[in-house]
Design brief:
38% helix; globular
Length: 222
């Protein structure tokens, strides 16, 4: 519809409009990470040196952009309650999630697709270029998207995977995150289903696909 109508962008809200997904003029969606990075740059223009939150499945480009624009990035667990709590503890002015929730200090730390839209329109207006071009500097890596695998024991699988990658830095802030240098991944258990969720990011599409196959093969073999 965006392409056929010749529109500058499209906006897709969920039922209660606390989330928004953005589509560029070529009909390509922006990830929640890309939108978070763009909004963070805009917020930091008005609040120099401020703290900005991002959850741990966001792209590495998000903290990079925050730092480049003079902000202080803080990595959090996934989810409303976690973001809002850390915003209160740190005084953060903005927080973004890969799932397209965007939180604003001046909105009582609540998420709002409408406010996020206003910021996106502001940034696009300032840029004076098509969104397909404007987005490019904020998209630096290739991501797997969230891949779900049914498992009997998510914790047992994560512990076994951690041992295989024990030579790399790891944390258990929210599931298992492993930093393998030029690529990283997070494994998290679903709170409602017997599923293990994989998010992985690498420098190139081929590297991303190869590492996804590597980790999924390990997960399914355990």
């Amino acid at each position: 519809r965006v392409v056929s109508g010749g529109f500058d962008l499209g906006l897709a809200f969920d039922g209660d409009a606390d989330r928004v997904f953005v589509v560029d003029e070529k009909g390509r969606g922006l990830s929640g990470s890309t939108t978070t990075a763009i909004l963070a740059a805009g917020v930091l223009r008005a609040h120099p040196g401020a703290t900005v939150l991002y959850n741990l499945i966001c792209s590495r480009s998000v903290p990079e952009v925050i730092i480049e624009h003079g902000g202080v990035p803080v990595r959090t667990k996934v989810g409303h309650s976690n973001i809002k709590q850390v915003m209160a503890e740190t005084g953060a002015v903005f927080g973004g999630e890969h799932s397209a929730h965007y939180y604003f200090l001046d909105n009582y730390r609540a998420d709002s697709g409408i406010i996020a839209t206003m910021f996106m329109l502001q940034e696009l207006s300032r840029a004076q270029m098509p969104l397909s071009q404007f987005r490019a500097p904020f998209e630096r890596y290739e991501a797997s998207g969230e891949i779900n695998t049914s498992v009997d024991s998510a914790d047992a699988v994560m512990q076994a995977v951690a041992k295989v990658y024990q030579q790399f830095p790891q944390d258990w802030i929210d599931g298992l995150t492993v930093d393998c240098g030029n690529w990283w991944f997070n494994l998290r258990a679903s709170n409602t289903e017997p599923l293990l969720r994989l998010n992985l990011e690498a420098a190139t599409r081929d590297e991303c696909d190869n590492h996804v196959a590597e980790v999924l093969s390990l997960v399914t073999s355990i």
